[in-house]
Amino acid sequence: MKLSTKTRYGLRALLYMAERYDGDRAVPVGEIAKEQQVSEKYLEQLFIKLRRKNIISSVRGAQGGYVLQRNPREVTVASVVEALEGDITFADCLSSGGCRNKGSCATHDLWSRLKDSIDGILEDTTLFDLVNKCGSGKEDAPGVANG
């Protein structure tokens, strides 16, 4: 399984915004696109999905752009993946339709445990966590507000 460019590029853009987060400063999409080497048009498409899930909001005007709607400590990677990809499913038997061979399938439990593990990691990881891993290594990365 491989996450699509939607998730990889969307997450990179959000991390860029998280590094500069101060609560209300909008980051222009052109700046994000240039710094992340991603098409501005493509980012706009991703940002539509992220806005619909209330992860970011747009600001119009000369100082316009996009801003995180919540502190980076509160935005989980799971919410980003879900906004951009939908639910991650490893096998059809784990989808909402269920599995008709659940009782006799030797791999059902494996796929279920794998999904639960990945979901747990994505739920436990926030933008703040990722900024700190890639950033200065300090407890409070530059540009990411405390609390």
The CATH superfamily of the domain at 5-86 and 126-134 bears the name Winged helix-like DNA-binding domain superfamily/Winged helix DNA-binding domain
In which range does the helix fraction lie?
A: 40-55%
Structural class, from secondary structure content?
mainly alpha
Q: Report the end-to-end length measured between terminal Cα atoms.
A: 35 Å
Rg of Cα set = 17 Å
Q: Taking strands numbered 1, 2, ... along the chain, how are they ordered across the largest sheet?
A: 1-2
DSSP strand tally: 2
CATH-level-2 architecture of the domain at 5-86 and 126-134: Orthogonal Bundle
- pLDDT < 50 stretches: 136-142
The CATH class designation of the domain at 5-86 and 126-134 is Mainly Alpha
Strand residue percentage: 5-15%
What spatial form do the alpha-carbon principal axes imply? elongated
- For the report, how would you describe the main beta sheet? 2 strands, antiparallel
Question: Which fold does the CATH topology of the domain at 5-86 and 126-134 refer to?
Answer: Arc Repressor Mutant, subunit A
Number of helices: 6
User: What letter string, H or E per element, gives the SSE order?
Assistant: HHHEEHHH
Overall residue-averaged pLDDT value:
85
Protein name: BadM/Rrf2 family transcriptional regulator
Keywords: DNA-binding
InterPro entries: Tscrpt_reg_Rrf2 (IPR000944), WH-like_DNA-bd_sf (IPR036388), WH_DNA-bd_sf (IPR036390)
GO molecular function, one term: DNA-binding transcription factor activity
In words, what does this structure look like?
This is BadM/Rrf2 family transcriptional regulator. Keywords: DNA-binding. The protein is mostly helical and 147 residues long. It has a domain at 5-86 and 126-134: Winged helix-like DNA-binding domain superfamily/Winged helix DNA-binding domain (Arc Repressor Mutant, subunit A). Helix content is 48%, strand content 5%. The chain has 6 helices and 2 strands, in the order αααββααα. It has helices spanning 5-19, 29-36, 40-52, 77-85, 108-124, 127-134, and strands at 56-59, 65-68. The chain has a two-stranded antiparallel ribbon with strand order 1-2. A hairpin with a 5-residue loop joins β1 and β2 (65-68). α1 packs across α2.
